[in-house]
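User: Show me an example of a complex going from sequences to structure tokens.

Assistant: Sure. Here are the input components:
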Amino acid sequence: MSLPVEQWPRVKELFAAAVELPADERAALLDRACEGDSTLRKEVESLLDSDEQAEGFIEKSAFALPGDLLAEEAEEEFAGRQFGAYRVVREIGRGGLGAVYLAARSDEQYQKQVAIKLVKRGLDTDDILRRFRAERQILAQLDHPNIARLIDAGSTEEGLPYFVMEFVDGQSIGSYCEAHQLPASSRLKLFRIVCGAVTYAHQHLVIHRDIKPSNVLVTEEGVPKLVDFGIAKVLHADDPTAAQTMTGIRVMTPEYASPEQVRGLAITTSTDVYSLGVLLYELLTGQKPYRLATRTAEEISRAVTDQIPERPSTAIDRAGISPQSAIRDPKSLRGDLDNIVLMALRKEPERRYASVEQFSEDIRRHIAGLPVVAHKATLSYRARKFVTRHRAGVLAAALIIATLCLGIATTWREKRRAERRFNDVRQLSNALLTDIAPKIERLQGSTEARQSVLAQSLKYLDSLAKESAGDPVLQSELAAAYEKVGDLQGNPTNPNLIALADALKSYEKAHAIRQELITSDPRNAEQRRLLADNYRVLGDIRWQTNEQAESLRNSEAALRLYTELLAENPASTELRLAWIRTNHDIGKTLSSNEKYAESIGYFQKAIETAEELRQQSPDRTDVLMLLGNCRRQLANSLAWEGKQPEAEAEMAKALAIYEPLAAANRDDILVRTGLYQTYMLTSSLYEEVNDSLATEYGLKALRIVSENVEQDSANVRARQQLAKTYSRLGVTLDNEGKNAESIVHLEKAVAILQELAQKETKNRRFTHDLATAFIRLGDSRHKQREFPLALADFDKAATILLELANSDEADNASRRNLANAYDSAMKTHEELAAASAGAEAQKHRSKARQYAQWALDALRQLESRNALSKYDQKSLEELQVALQKYD
Amino acid sequence: MPSGEREVDLIALDEALLDLVTFDARQSRIVELRFFGGLTNEEIGEVLEISPRTIKREWRLAKAWLRREISGEHPNVAAG
């Protein structure tokens, strides 16, 4: 600006004064006012000049719609003006479309009152009139007490189109409800009447498309009437040539537009369901469903398509004292009504109510206290949506790569060109995978969509691999892509073995590539780190698939590399984190093979370095989680080594980390799982030391995992954890002597595990857990003196475990548990023997002897493998003593 | 076709608005609400709590100023 800013108010004043005046008077005014200040005068004059040419400048708003044209320019008074057979009485109001006038037939004064809606410039009147004539038949048939009839349409001399409609003497439904302080129940009744009208129209194949509070008028007698039915279609139809906007969005009224309208997709009756949903939301809460800060086109379209509206009951609570104090009864809103409204507001048309009638019915059911159809949208649905939305992008990129691969030309020049494009696309593809992967990991999500994305990506990566020889940069990228795919395959929420095997394959492919790269460039630090990362993940996957020895080898290789790299680069946080993780992994592998003493060293080293990192970055969630994990594992190992007080102290530290972390990160599934696992280990820590505490922690774990399952019932891992938790509680309650309760929990665990095992017959973990649950159930029943039932359980457990043991030489855990099952059966038979006499007693004693022998045999097998732990040794000795008794 | 109704360079407009907001935040807000938000003067009046008449006045000047900025026709260009 040429003038100093302080002068701006003066400029404004002068402009405002001068702009209304004719040219000669203008000059005079400026002469007087500017008093020789030529800069000021020039400024005002240039603005006045600009104003002359700015009539149409930015008058059409950015996502300009026909319906959004403002009747600004026309300040003209239409009173008394003739529109066809009608004479305007007065202006009633101005809306987005234009001005609305009250008119009457010029021959009979007050007998037939109509409303005339005048649409301002910018539209092709002929098109509108043509469409109106086409729609007229249909619209004329709309004869319903709650629909304002569209009577006629025409155009003025100036070529402005107008609509003649039944006049409704009323106010908008929002104002009406407020003015009459209507309680929620009355608003619902009113709303249902509106639904009835819309249903009627739908039956006559007319979609409103622009339902909003100002289009629903209510008369003084309380009769609601919908206006502007069908006008939206007439006004701009789905005609592609109609008013293309600058941003390409076609929206009627932004806050009420449905996602499909915002995206320019097909409009269906479901669109009206949505708009009715918005209307209902406002009627019940006094607020709009989406929070918009600036109302720009982008923000609106984003909000409508992506923002999840706040539950009406929450919105009311949050608003505090709402002006509509009559409806401020959040209790009546919570639950069903919340879900009903939200269901109508779903982004996908097919996820909403199938019809307005259904919507209205559900409301009726709610009023009547009956169960409703609407249900909560689950997290898995959101996850699925997320993946499918990005799937197109990933596949597109992958397809491009494939095309390029196949089409890589033989000539050098063409190859270079293809390579350049290749790079961009490859980066894109990688970026998409990187972008999706961490998000999917953290969502409790479904897997079908993910699987197809992965399958596709793998196909293309494999073909890329063929072309990559001799190009180390490309090869490294390829390895990274395989690893990313592997991450997604080795699906943390559904650890089925087939997926894990796939993940392993992908990682092995990456591994092979990385080994090659190191061989040709051994000093490359980056490549060495990537290889170390690869080793670490291989170790982790193998631990999950129970290949313990292999797993350890991989983890140790990783540790060696990290140690080397850290020596060269001691300050690197990422390296330190990786080093800590690997120590933790090794510790865990050792623990699960009962090598507790050895594991302790690794955990302690990990903790020491993790604490250092924590000092540096006290708020990093990943550091805190790692520290928590290490501490709880250390606690576990200490307990097994008989160091109970130290174990308890250590576990307390783990909890002190995880509990606040979980509270601060409620939606983070990884954090919640971490807390869950900590509670579970704490529970086992107190087992037989302080059983009521053990139960308490078991219940805490149960709360977390139950919520997870509730939110995503398809999540297999969550259900497995639930079963485990029930099983754990079964043990602690049993120890507390609450046998009946224990049995209840164990039966639940068995039920879940049976289901899971049936679905995935190859999953050894499920079947193993099932066997364990049977043993515990049997033990509980034994305590309740339900001996026959207990024996049945032990038998089932034994059958499963025998199979597991026989099918895998290296499976020590199964053998150990088999010994347990036999041992328990033996004890039960002993009890039965004691409780009976004569031949009966003899039968039981010989059975007891048999089981003792079998148990001993199983333990001996472990002995021959050097897999006997301290506890096993003790059991073995006890069994020998027991057997001697029989002999 | 009314004058001035051609495609607006939205980026230029955005930059110009960034300038405008430094000395007349209210006008800038009005332009935002009206052009980008599609609100009517009455609605803007409700949001900003000023009368539609004031809004009309501000809008007119804002348009004139913005148009001048974007078109590059500065008053001092020709000055000596």
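The lines above are the inputs; the final block is the predicted structure for all two components together. The first strand of chain A starts at residue 82 and ends at 83.
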